[in-house]
């Protein structure tokens, strides 16, 4: 048997992209697609955003990399912007969401040891996704992600998502718990939005128990849900926040932000990275952060997201094959009553990129924050019709 030169980690659709512009992406045959996936919540400013292109090109011509053994002014500038935006105290930069979460997990363990807890444990959620490294797949609440990689990293205890009582019960009996790690909206799990007040109640428990509240905003951050960070919808401050996906519009970067006690735990030699926060990635991220505020894109995400959910409800809300249409800003899920994995391929044929998650039942849309009204209308009509045809409710036109 001859093997393909790429390791077999993805079931890829048979399309290759050549270039993009704004909300549109073009394949190598010249076909165009409305990109309602954004490389999974990464290219929030759309493709080839001029501010990002310029920042990257200018920086590539000056200095791409120099090592964290030296002062990196762009990293300091980006840290300054992100801490101001979030109210957090400091940042560690890595290259991905998983690495940002690894930093958070390491912080929680150091926090535990600083309090004399020898076997520090983190509460994580069912149905969560935190990444593919050993610690983050162990934190992830999906057996398929973990199967075959045992032994898993120890020190996690799992409870149902959006269930404060379950967290209280763990607090009563487990004295090793030092932190909670939770997504403000579960993305990979199927766009699950917790009840109003969930984070606030978790914050209260963390305060009582002296636990760290650690939010995985790898997907929800960077304007995606209608605030720069999703926790800013609720009146709380976390101890640790991680982000990555949308932070540099496609240039790899991850960030772990910390506040208070958690911001003092790393010291030289306790954590590090070769590439993390290099000048190129930071220049791209600075352009993204500046563009999001200059163009009011958080507000845009909220308004456009509300419009999309409202219109999808009008078009599909009453259909018997739809369980629920839900969204927070531009994280939108259309939950079907039965699996509809093929919809990603069918949508591609109709010129729309989306994906299906949550056990194959949730059509997930993550459109760019810069999507226009007419592009949004095209998305609503195309996807609604696609689902109706798929369910046998309408004939293909
Ligand atoms: C995508 C994602 C990750 C993993 O990020 P990578 O950059 O793929 O390592 C972690 N947490 C959440 C919530 C994510 O959506």
Number of strands: 15
What proportion strand? 15-25%
Count of discrete domains: 2
CATH topology of the largest domain: Aspartate Aminotransferase, domain 2
- The level of helicity is 25-40%
Binding site for pyridoxal 5'-phosphate: 97-98, 129, 216-219, 274
Cofactor: pyridoxal 5'-phosphate
Family: Belongs to the class-III pyridoxal-phosphate-dependent aminotransferase family. ArgD subfamily.
Main location: cytoplasm
Short précis:
The chain has twelve helices and 15 strands.
Summarize this structure as a short list of keywords or feature phrases.
identical protein binding, Aspartate Aminotransferase, domain 1, 397 residues, 2 domains, Aspartate Aminotransferase, domain 2, binds pyridoxal-5'-phosphate, alpha/beta, 12 helices, four-stranded mixed sheet, EC 2.6.1.11
Describe what this molecule looks like in 3D.
The chain is of the alpha/beta class and 397 residues long. It folds into two domains: 128 residues, Alpha-Beta Complex (Aspartate Aminotransferase, domain 1), CATH 3.90.1150.10; 243 residues, 3-Layer(aba) Sandwich (Aspartate Aminotransferase, domain 2), CATH 3.40.640. 35% of the residues lie in helices and 17% in strands. It has twelve helices and 15 strands. A seven-stranded mixed sheet has the order 4-10-9-8-7-5-6, sandwiched between helices. The protein has a four-stranded mixed sheet with strand order 1-2-3-13. A hairpin with a 2-residue loop joins strand 1 and strand 2. Helix 7 packs parallel to helix 8. The chain starts with 16 loop residues before the first strand and ends in a 7-residue tail after the last helix. Bound molecules: pyridoxal-5'-phosphate. Pyridoxal-5'-phosphate binds next to helix 4.
